[in-house]
Amino acid sequence: MDKNELIAVLRSARTLNGIHLRRRLAARNRNGLNAVNPDSYMTGDAFLQYSCQGSLAQEKLAKLADEVADHYEDRVGYDTDPDPDRATWIAQEHRPRNSDMLPFKCSAHARYSRGNFNRDELAFAQALDAFAHGVWLRNADTGDLGYHVPLPFKVGDSLRFFPDFLWWPEGSDGPTWAIDTTGRHLINEKIRGKLVSVGQPHMALLTRGHVDLTREHVVGNDGWSAVIARIGLQPLVEHADDLQRVLQTLVDHR
Question: What does the CA dihedral 53, 55, 58, 63 come to, rounded to 10 degrees?
Fold first, then answer.
């Protein structure tokens, strides 16, 4: 390799500082990146310089990206979408995952396939149907079919939260619940990332056992815990021996 080739390789390994900051912020929180005016990281002498991987400059840029993301995640809130086409969400036809169809009496769809439920989801669906208050829906988990809430930061690999169930205990004119049944191994991630409060619908996570919010884990397997989001307050944990009592707690929640 001659001198000119070596110089070309070294130059190709460098990245414009503004571009490097953009990439780091996009990897951490794309919504946070979208909230930043591009002029703020693509102008100025420092951002127009080049740096190499492992350099002090890129270490400082990575730290800056984390600080910007932290600032965004601590302060971002929810507001009404001004787009009139997005003001109303309409449930679509159920798309079964297998041919084993289960009938329900109080659901928005007359039948759901068994393949659309895991064990806890099916137990909760049956409890909702037996509780017989209002109407419930097994939510789809894709953007073209399911109802979702945008998240202020990425949880797992997603910036959208698709709750497992939507429930109108008093009918279409009453409050709505968005409820997600979750496995014990996911409770930490979901408490931190998906338990957001948007007013309507009310948000709740549901899991077997006792949820300890202080240590963010689940103790034991007895009964069920509902972790309820509250605007400006710590989540509320309600535990009951069976799902019927949990559902009554949600109906009584104000």
Answer: 120
